[in-house]
Write the C-alpha cells for this entry.
Amino acid sequence: MAALATVGPDGYPQMSELWFLADGDTLQLSLNTSWQKVKNLPFASARLLAESRLARAR
C-alpha cells in the first residue's frame, strides 16, 4: 500500500491509500482518472508503507 497526499483546488490536503507497483525507479499507482486526487497530481507526495507496518496496524 502507498499513502498519496495531494492538495485540492480549495488548498486543503487529501490523503488516500492505494495500491501500487514499484518497477525500478518507476512507481505505478492504481488510479481512476475521474477521482479528485488524480486532478490534484501536480501537487502530490507518495509514501510507501512497509508490509510489516501494515500487518501490525490490522
